[in-house]
Design brief:
The protein folds into two domains: about 120 residues, 2-Layer Sandwich (D-amino Acid Aminotransferase, Chain A, domain 1), CATH 3.30.470.10; about 160 residues, D-amino Acid Aminotransferase, subunit A, domain 2 (D-amino Acid Aminotransferase, Chain A, domain 2, Alpha-Beta Barrel). It is built from eight helices and 16 strands. Helix 6 packs across helix 8. The protein starts with a strand and ends with a strand. It binds N-(5'-phosphopyridoxyl)-D-alanine. It catalyses: L-leucine + 2-oxoglutarate = 4-methyl-2-oxopentanoate + L-glutamate; L-isoleucine + 2-oxoglutarate = (S)-3-methyl-2-oxopentanoate + L-glutamate; L-valine + 2-oxoglutarate = 3-methyl-2-oxobutanoate + L-glutamate. It comes from Neorhizobium galegae bv. officinalis.
């Protein structure tokens, strides 16, 4: 079965899908995106993802490509055509194609929209949950509007590659005063010795993850205390558990940071109980 992508109003074969050579996403990273999980034929937290897309577009004064109902229809259609039951969709909107010029293009230039979908193997995720992952820390070097989900991800790409070359799987950005920001494509959480769940405030300095927001609902349901405050790298290294949240990994245990074990070096019980409850609490939209 060939994969299908949606590009500016058309469903095309994935291998033929293309945008204009002067698309501003390609030339200036002048675009925003969303990644949303699909599990057992259900889109997870679609409303929150589309709300954040609207916010990202608004912050960059970019036009929405279509209304919410039409967009939801197209997303579901892409998932159906690709027969995704477990996987993700990726949606990108850019400021459109125009002769290369840093100024915004002429009023009325249509935005570019692309949507792709792919299946993922749930057993690969299960393996990751069972073993946990190793990470490195790196100095924060991103711009200060990382709260907008733009496709300008070069520092994140370099950080992940550096992690890979160091024998780890991911990287955590630490600011100049030692405060933990977030990982290259996830938010960071710790479980303190007192059993509190701590994550840094998301008003600025990090992307306000949708998984993070839903996890706060999950913690409430499980009777766990969530504290939104900054924490330093030393506190993270001394934590009982450390885990990442993102739409692609949900809740991934971190077992090693800069070659030092987290607690006993094995995934903890809090992250696994959160994972078990996550999909009961999250919004589910049938494909
Ligand atoms: N990344 N922080 C960053 C920098 C991210 O790129 C992401 C998501 C998150 C978590 O957000 P959410 O819970 O809404 O997925 C935090 C996606 C998955 C990606 O770029 O592939």
């Amino acid at each position: 079965m060939s994969r299908i992508a949606y590009v500016n109003g058309q469903y095309v074969r994935h291998s033929d899908a293309a945008v204009h050579v002067e698309d501003r996403g390609f030339q200036f990273a002048d675009g925003v995106y969303e990644v949303c999980e699909v599990r057992h034929g259900m889109i997870v937290d679609l409303t929150r993802h589309l709300n954040r897309l609207d916010r990202s577009l608004g912050e960059l004064r970019m036009a929405a490509p279509m209304g919410r109902a039409a967009l939801t229809f197209v997303i579901r259609e892409v998932l159906r055509r690709n027969r995704v039951k477990n996987g993700i969709f990726y949606l990108q909107v850019t400021r459109g194609a125009a002769r290369r010029d840093h100024y915004f293009p002429a009023e009325g230039t249509p935005p570019t929209i692309t949507i792709t979908a792919k299946s993922t193997d749930p057993s690969a995720a299960a393996k990751k949950y069972a073993s946990g992952i190793k990470v490195i820390t790196l100095p924060e070097n991103r711009w200060d509007r990382v709260d907008i989900k733009t496709v300008g991800l070069l520092p994140n790409v370099l950080a992940k590659q550096q992690a890979k070359e160091a024998g780890a799987q991911d990287a955590i950005f630490i600011d100049r005063s030692g405060i933990v920001m977030e990982a290259a494509s996830s938010n960071v959480w710790i479980v303190t010795r007192d059993g509190e769940l701590v994550t840094r405030p998301a008003e600025h300095g990090i992307l306000k993850g949708i998984t993070r927001t839903t996890l706060i609902d999950v913690a409430k349901k499980l009777g766990l205390k969530v504290v939104e405050r900054e924490f330093k790298a030393e506190e993270m290294l001394a934590a009982r558990e450390v885990f990442f949240t993102s739409a692609t990994g949900i809740c991934v245990p971190i077992v090693q940071i800069d070659n030092k074990p987290v607690a006993n070096g094995h995934p903890g019980t809090v992250s696994s109980s959160i994972r078990d409850t996550f999909f009961d609490v999250a919004e589910k939209t049938a494909i």
